[in-house]
Design goal:
heterotrimer, A mainly alpha, B alpha+beta, C alpha/beta, A: mainly alpha, MetI-like fold, globular, C: alpha/beta, D-Maltodextrin-Binding Protein, domain 2, 4 domains, 11-stranded mixed beta sheet, 11 strands
């Protein structure tokens, strides 16, 4: 069997080159100043100090707020859906899960553009409202439009893990709860919900991770004023050209996510 | 004894398949009743209808004379021990047992007292804080029983609770279950496909097949006086022979007439006779009416299993005596060893 | 009661699915629209499908997306499976280490992964293109394969391989004949995941690709500037293909039983196709610079009549790699990260910077006989005196586009301060560009837009902050064009060329440049220092300023031509009466952007970020 051990060697090398070294490069840029040349660096903490300015802190605050809000709404809407699906006969379950996943295979940008057309001031929804005699509502470039875009794109990532944990749950546990005198509501809160927590945590991790670092959806649906941490990083690299500051923000984001993830993992273990 | 549960003409269909075809059964207080039968016979469905997990397609379930078949499980005074125990993996031993009591919003100190008493009864003192997923099968079983009994139900339903245990622990649990039942003094309804288990534990055995009840009786009745070929062959090994009831106390088969203890059949009714292998004795050929040749002998530990070929059939005999293959022997049995039963077309 | 319950459950499911499918449905419906509008259905037509077929850029992108996805899936599936099998036999320390490293790309935000890879490739000096994109895709796909295969391997009986070898199998045979078939499901799930991730990826591809190699996502992202229903046609095709593939994959188990032999042949055929595809991909886009006569042109998005490129390729028997950027800054970033191009078409101040930083070579005007066609007014400007390095391409101003039916003509007198008029609160678009926005503020305050005076800049910053707080403007990018055509808001800051196009689509609008002065800008063609096809580059520039090309270019794009004949024809023809087509050069307060020192530039960038990040 030992001969199979060597099978990991190619990936070990590959992972080191393409995963570890790039991260070291980010750190290197984050702690240095000036220029896009690695060789001319000099050590500095300036990039991190700069990040502490109120503006950037508010960007991070806004990103977390939006990330948490998106995650909560996805959980609130996705859990019932996963729950209903898990109650369906097996054949319809497979079909419904397929229907939930298909949109994920269609380019995210394309779907976001479609939302722009739906939500704009003279867009399809407002036109329909006008036909119904309701005055148009401004939806584009607001929290609402950004949330709609994020939720539409990320909710399946909440539904799938929750459905997995619900559908593989032993039915006799639910019967046992009924048997021991729990009504439907109590059975849900005391057994079903508790047992689906690993799936819920998985979903929360996925959605939060995706929504906190996104930059395309807020840019398209929220406009330039919708500055999130992802947009901040993108603009540092693409338009401002300050790679060092951009790297520093990336590093901070990565560390924050890491802290969040280990918190979630710990919660998972405690459960 | 008072009637506790009455099942009246219970039927159940799943899709277009009929799994229960009219079950009528009375269950009494403090009774240990076993539903016995092969898989798919409808025993588990019957149990689930009593528990409230299934609604009967037709018929009534009376509990203390009140119809309950539409009542949800959480409003019934019955509790269940599930096949694979169904312990809540997110709760520890004590929390599992206290689950039902917590729902009743009972006082904390009362709950812990009750939990402790239950753990003592099932022999798991000191296990309160253990993780249920790390317990052995036997221990999980005890927790499941404690969890059900702590609610002080009128009836405890057990769905093949010993099925997942190995032979030794199984024997031990059988004894313990019986002891627990006597201690708490409530009705146990027990589902199993293991006839030995059924016979050794029950007050009443209900043999089921194909969605119908075949026979209801005490273990001895069921074993000694099977009412039909199915019961006879399902309970223990038997020699089943077609014959004719000449008149009361006289039966004819294999070309001979024998005295017996059965009566109440019509004269010359076609019947079937059960001869239990352990009731047959091997004697010298001239001492018996039925004669044959030893074809095979297998050592079974306590006894030998001997196959004797006669003119018409092969008899199976369990005996402690040895008989070499090829020997001519006679088969002897007394009138009380002959069990006459109605002949059933389909078996 | 129970039935009611069920009804509401089903209703909820239907509503959720409707929410997911609404955008897809809209996309599909409007792909058959006969007009350009994305909000009003005017009739059925297949015109966008025809345009899609004729659009070489999109077809190429489809090719890139598909081949990259297939190759990345195959490689990462093999690599991931092999690694997962090896992992299950490795020592605990190694296992934990590798699994943790493997988790990094999954747990890291995509943008961080993208940037880390970009930094890696640029410090290794890799040419960005097909190969870098492929490597990046393998990098982020493999971890997903490992995470879906590894649990299956772990669940296997550890004696399986031993049993196989005991029966005479070599370790390799044990692997392929016993282990792999047992974990087939995990491998398939991993491969599917990898394909989806790769095919749909935008962020990582966006940062690591270059040299004209674009996948569908990047093309779509670049299409924002103009309404382009060909996107809808493309996505409809993608949707149909996906649905067909899904149906097939559900039917495959049935077919598979019947044709197991065929399967083997299929595998062989598939791998042959794959190899051909890889080679073609590498040859065509990976090492494109190696072949003779290739011209790499880098221009702003939606800023050229693309048929001209084909015409040029035919006429001069060469190949053009055409790439687009979103902003001058983005172009500069690419250039400074080691990307090479032959011809660039940046704006004035950027040209000035490129000259200063010695990125450009002087033009040989003798090789540009069409110089005689150029307008007098566009040459010899401050950014490149004597036009030593640059040949003007388009020009124009920045101004305010307003809805005549909403905006009171009296209010126009306020000039830029119109943008602070509370009457139009929440009813205007600013342009999401730091220099243009600061230009507005500085001009409104009466300063030069090229000021380096920190106090003035600070004052302008305050102006923008106040404007933001009192007016609730949207800082839009090129989506302003679509929005204004649809009449979504009353006011917008736009470039004159975009204004001309918008007004031609929505006659309710008009354009004006405030008397306080504005930015008068020039975009021009330049040749880079390391251009390898200097003669061809000159031919190209000369071709673009021929009377014929210039006319079709300005007609297509709507920006003001720098070629006299085209300018005059449009002024009196298509855009007669459209004020934005004629840049106002009479106002002495108008200025051209000048090169900014890095410190000042960064200050602007920082302040602009702060304006946007409320």
């Amino acid at each position: 069997m030992k001969q199979y051990r060597n099978l990991i060697k190619p990936y070990l090398v590959w992972a080191f080159v393409i995963i570890v070294i790039p991260l070291i490069l980010i750190a290197l840029y984050a702690f240095t100043e000036d220029g896009n040349e690695v060789l001319t660096f000099s050590f500095t903490l300036e990039n991190f100090r700069k990040f502490l300015e109120a503006t950037y802190m508010s960007v991070i605050f806004k990103s977390f707020k939006l990330g948490i809000l998106t995650t909560l709404i996805c959980l609130g809407l996705g859990y019932p859906l996963a729950f209903i699906i898990s109650k369906c006969p097996e054949k319809s379950q497979n079909l419904l899960i397929l229907l939930v996943t298909i949109p994920e295979w269609i380019n995210m940008l394309l779907r976001t553009y479609a939302w722009m057309n739906l939500l704009s001031d003279n867009g399809i929804i407002n036109r329909l409202l006008q036909l119904l005699g309701i005055s148009p509502v401004t939806m584009m470039y607001t929290d609402f439009s950004v949330l709609v875009g994020l939720i539409c794109n990320f909710m399946p990532f909440m539904i799938i893990p929750i459905h997995t944990s619900l559908s593989k749950m032993d039915k006799s546990l639910i019967e046992a709860a009924f048997d021991l005198g729990a009504n439907k509501f109590q059975t849900f809160t005391k057994v079903i919900w508790k047992l689906s927590i690993p799936g819920v945590l998985n979903g929360i991790m996925m959605v939060f991770l995706l929504s906190i670092s996104t930059f395309v959806i807020p840019k398209l649906l929220g406009g330039g004023q919708y500055m999130l941490i992802g947009n901040l990083i993108e603009s540092q690299f693409i338009s401002v050209g300050d790679w060092n500051f951009g790297s520093a923000i990336s590093l901070i984001l990565a560390v924050l996510i890491l802290i969040f993830m280990s918190l979630m993992k710990k919660m998972d273990k405690d459960e | 004894m008072n009637k506790l549960i009455e099942l009246k003409n219970l039927t159940k269909n799943f899709d277009d398949q009929q799994v229960l075809r009219g079950i009528n059964l009375d269950i009494y207080e403090k009774e240990f009743l076993t539903l016995l039968g092969p898989s798919g016979c409808g025993k588990t469905t019957t149990l689930r209808i009593i528990a409230g997990f299934e609604e009967p397609s037709d018929g009534e379930v009376l509990f203390n004379g009140i119809e309950i078949s539409k009542l949800p499980p959480y409003k019934r005074e019955v509790n269940t021990v599930f096949q694979k125990y169904a312990l809540f993996p997110h709760l520890n031993v004590a929390e599992n047992i206290a689950f039902g009591l917590n729902l009743k919003k009972m006082d904390k100190s009362v709950i812990s007292q009750k939990v402790e008493r239950m753990l003592k009864m099932v022999g798991l003192e000191g296990f309160e804080k253990r993780d249920v997923t790390l317990l052995s099968g036997g221990q999980q079983q005890r927790v499941a029983i404690a969890r059900a009994l702590v609610n002080e139900p009128k009836v405890l339903l057990l769905d093949e609770p010993l099925g997942a245990l190995d032979a030794k622990i199984r024997k031990q649990m059988q004894v313990e279950l019986k002891k627990i039942q006597q201690e708490v003094g409530i009705t146990f309804i027990y589902v199993t496909h293991d006839q030995e288990e059924a016979l050794s534990m029950s007050d009443t055995v209900v043999v089921m097949n194909n969605g119908e009840i075949q026979q209801i009786g005490t273990p001895t009745d069921i074993y000694n006086e099977p009412e039909n070929r199915f019961v006879a062959s399902f309970i223990g090994e038997s020699n089943i022979i077609e014959g004719i009831m000449v008149k009361d106390y006289l039966v004819q088969f294999d070309g001979f007439e024998f005295e017996c203890v059965d009566k109440g059949f019509e004269d010359n009714e076609e019947i079937e006779v059960v001869l239990r292998p352990e009731d047959l004795d091997i004697v010298a050929p001239e001492q018996a009416k039925i004669r044959g040749t030893v074809r095979n002998i297998t050592f079974k530990g306590v006894h030998y299993e001997i196959l004797i070929e006669t003119e018409l059939r092969t008899y199976m005999v369990h005996t402690t005596d040895y008989a070499e293959v090829g020997r001519e022997v006679g088969l002897k049995f007394g009138p009380e060893d002959i069990h006459v039963m109605y002949r059933m077309g389909s078996y | 009661m129970k039935r009611n319950h069920k009804f509401f459950s089903m209703l909820y499911v239907v509503l959720c699915l409707a929410f997911f499918y609404l955008p897809i449905l809209v996309t599909m419906i409007f792909s058959f629209n006969s007009s350009k509008s994305l909000t009003r259905f005017t009739g059925f037509s297949l015109r966008w499908y025809q345009e899609l077929m004729g659009n070489g850029e999109v077809i190429k992108a489809v090719y890139v997306s598909v081949t990259i996805a297939i190759i990345a899936t195959v490689i990462s599936t093999i690599l991931g499976t092999v690694t997962a099998i090896g992992l299950s036999k490795s020592r605990k320390v190694v296992k934990e280490l590798l699994l943790n490293i493997n988790n990094i790309p999954i747990l890291n935000p995509e943008i961080v992964t993208a940037i880390s890879l970009m930094l890696l490739f640029s410090s290794l000096g890799f040419r960005k293109g097909y190969l870098t994109m492929l490597l990046a895709h393998i990098a982020f796909c493999t971890p997903y394969v490992i995470t879906s295969v590894y649990p299956k391997v772990r669940a296997l009986d550890p004696n399986l391989a031993n049993a196989a070898m005991d029966l005479g199998a070599t370790p390799f045979q044990a692997l392929t004949k016993v282990i792999v078939p047992m974990i087939k499901e995990g491998i398939f799930a991993g491969a599917l995941l990898a394909f989806t991730m790769s095919f749909d990826d935008f962020v990582i591809s966006y940062f690591v690709s270059g040299n004209g190699v674009k996948n569908i996502s990047i093309v779509v992202y670049n299409m924002t500037k103009r309404i382009n229903p060909t996107i809808n046609a493309l996505s409809t095709i993608v949707i149909v293909v996906i649905v067909v593939v899904l149906l097939l994959s559900n039917l495959v188990p049935l077919i598979k039983k019947k044709a197991k032999k065929l399967n083997r042949r299929m595998v062989r055929v598939m791998s042959a196709i794959l190899i051909v595809a890889v080679t073609a991909g590498l040859v065509k886009w990976g090492y494109v610079a190696g072949s003779a006569h290739v011209l790499k042109v880098y221009n702003a998005g939606e800023y050229m009549d693309l048929s001209l490129l084909e015409k040029f390729e035919k006429e001069y028997n060469c190949q053009i790699v055409y790439e687009t950027f979103e902003s001058n800054e983005m172009m500069y970033t690419k250039l400074s990260s080691g990307e090479t191009y032959d011809v660039l078409i940046p704006s004035d101040y950027m040209i000035q910077r490129l000259i200063k930083e010695e990125y450009l070579q002087a033009l040989d005007w003798k090789k540009l006989p069409n110089r005689k066609n150029l307008l007098r007014d566009v040459t010899n400007k401050s950014y490149d005196p004597g036009n030593r390095y640059s040949c003007p391409y388009f020009w124009g101003t920045v101004g305010i586009l307003y809805d005549k039916t909403v905006v009171d003509p009296q209010d126009l007198k306020d000039g830029w301060n119109l943008l602070c008029n509370p009457k139009y609160k929440g009813n205007l678009y600013m342009y999401d560009s730091e220099r243009d926005s600061f230009m507005i503020a500085l001009k409104a305050l009466g300063y030069s837009m090229n000021t380096t005076n920190m106090e003035e800049i600070q004052e302008a910053y305050q102006w923008l902050i106040n404007q933001r707080d009192t007016m609730d403007p949207i800082y839009a990018g090129d989506d302003v064009i679509d929005n204004m055509i649809s009449g979504n808001k009353a006011l917008a800051v736009v470039y004159s060329g975009d204004a001309s196009y918008i007004i031609s689509e929505n006659p309710n609008l008009d354009y004006f440049t405030p008397d306080q002065g504005t930015n008068i800008w020039y975009d021009a063609m330049v040749i880079t220092k390391d251009c390898s096809e200097v003669d061809l580059a000159h031919e190209f520039i000369n071709f673009m300023i021929s009377d014929e090309s210039a006319l079709s270019n300005t007609e297509e794009v709507g920006y003001t031509s720098t070629v006299k004949s085209a300018y005059e024809e449009m002024k009196d023809g298509t855009y007669a009466g459209v004020s934005s087509y004629i840049p106002d050069i009479s106002n002495p307060k108008n200025e051209i952007f000048a090169y900014q020192k890095p410190k000042i530039k960064q200050k602007f960038a920082e302040l602009w970020t702060k304006v946007k990040a409320k």
